[in-house]
Here is the input.
Amino acid sequence: MRRMHEAFGATVRWRVSPAFGVAYVLLFTAAGILSSTARGPAEARAIADTPHAEFVGTEVCGQCHERQLKDWSGSDHAAAMQVANERTALGRFDGATFTKDGIDSRFFKRDGRLWVRTDGPDGKLADFEIRYTFGHFPLQQYLIELPGGRLQALGIAWDQRPAAEGGQRWFHLYPNQRLAAGHPLHWTGIDQNWNYQCAACHSTNLKKNYDAASETFATSWSEISVGCEACHGPGAKHVEWASASASSGTTAQDVRSDDPLHGFAKRFDERKGASWQMGQDGQAHRSVQRSTMTEIETCAQCHSRRQQFSDATATKLLDAFRPSLLEPPLYYADGQQRDEVFTYGSFLQSRMHAAGVTCSDCHNPHSGKLRENGNALCGQCHSPERFDTEKHHRHVAGGKGSECVSCHMPAATYMGVDARRDHSFRIPRPAQTANLGVPNACQTCHETSSAAWFADAMKRRFAGANAGFQSFADAFDRADRAAPGAQEALLKLASDAAQPPLVRASAIGRLRLSRRALEAVATALGDGDAAVRLAAVQALAGADAALKQQLLVPLLSDTTRTVRMEAARGLAGTSERMLDEAARKRFEAAIGEYVAAQEFNGERPEQQVNLAGLFAARGDGSKAEAALRRALKLDPTFVPAFVLLAEVKRTSGDEAAAEATLRDALISHPGSGELLHALGLSLVRQKRTAEAVDALVRAASGNQSVARYSYVAALALYDSGRAAEADDLLEQALATHPYDRQILYLVAVKKLQAGDSLSALKHAELLRSLEPEDSAVAQLYGSAVQKAR
Here is the structure.
């Protein structure tokens, strides 16, 4: 499916692939794989369907729940993954060909099985059997088995839409990228591996079963598709509960009243005893406040952008998953979906969620279908007499513009053909498009009119209308640009109890450490929402060891696993040596959870880098190096592993080995700013100034999106007497990073030294507005004022 954008406890960022896996098309949960020795579909089914004592299967559930089974049978969940055959595979396997990057791939049948002839792991054409189908609408992908128990998703997918809509064709999920064997996104590559990327959301009771020693998978499932127990959990005890009812001749409600969960680990009762009552404002209000998140968090296990770090059954989302925050490049500054983020993060920021709406208020949880069609769905809670009128929507009745979702749930297309609606339920704000560059629903249909025109029209037509529920766009935009006023706006959001917890967590995640920020973070560490506490823990990553020891130790006993293990990772190294005996025991338990989380995804280079970072922080260079070697064996293209390996070599006292590591990596990654910058620093330490400057300047000139490269390169140029070049480099950097603190400070100092006091004052004034609490900035500003007089 994809790398999940952020790794635990390290600065490594996940490489994000634009599209992968019809898990994005489907509605829900987990999947599994046969052993590497299996061959035919019949044998694969026999292996995969090995009995699991706690899981009884959808057919057993359907013996009592016939209506739910009927609904499910026609759902996307039921077709999440299937053994490939002529009935389940929708694509044309009649000799059809598809050409991309000079490769002619041909789809055909042989011996009653489905095949594709395409370029394999060695780049040569070969025949590969299609083992499984993945999803069914609007596209279907196909899985191929490779050695080591790996299933890989073919990059060529079938467009199942009607021909009139452009469908009934083969197409590539990466049309604008040239992918050859060895590239992570090639179908044989690490980023197209089903076991890690998408299995957990296409079958029931998936166990990934990765063995690090042999680097193989023995992934299994209890059901190939997403069945009842994927959401409800193991059903054996529930069957036992129901059987007791039948044998006693009483109703199920009368039996085992001591078990309110009826044999399950959780119960979906958010809607029980609640009703929606229409108010005079034309809006429905929940009769009782929603007090749990069980249903929403169950859906979020798959309908969210998140990292999974356990396949053990968890009743709390953050005990097995880490959902993403509202951050770029996943979301726009106003919280609209940008990359493939699915539903959870969008919904949590919405007025609907705040009002108590749950997923099943709108969706039938068994069929996945909407409970009503068209505007009637919204009319359940928003009076049609008030809202389904031209006076409200200002469009012709019956047209696209009159549909509630057109304005309040605009769609974005992913995987080439799959349009998905934004679940943040926002009011269109064209003015934010004009000011912040975010999209707006109006221009989705009216592409030729400007955002400014729509902003003016909205102001005229909806004078006095409310400003909308989401009020964080300006703060997040300022923070993402590091602009003046960002810190104050973020602090206000972080402390505003009326804001959704996800918004407060996302604000905390953007804070720059300062005295006031530390006060806000310390308060957030005791917040009632685990996502807020987690964000606060991570905000302390750059704090000194004593402060982390003071603030993070209580979090080692947090009720949520993700918070505990992130607190332990924050303490690892210098801080852990300050712990007393009682705290150390809790630390060791929590750091064990952190390590287990990394090892759960041990087939990924990101996790190996995370482990290496932990080992290095704790002073174990040999273990760190071993983990980095594993990372590079798993993915030789993963640059962060080279950089950290060089750093491990350096800290062990072998600067020559650090340099050699970086130069070896540059052979295959000649333009990498990360590698060139690290090489330049290595050369500086070796006092090889001319070579160092050359590497640092190359890093900066070829990677202007990273401000620090330009800052360090400019320092090196100044030290080498090449002031004019440094001035030009900083000028270019300021054009791209106008609010970068280090660059502004350096420019102001150099202007002051050159006698250009007015320019120095201009930069110092901006810097003071950005960092009002910084004493060094205040001193610089004072000097500039004095010189400018």
About this structure: Residues 475 and 488 are 9 Å apart (CA to CA). The longest strand covers residues 125-134.
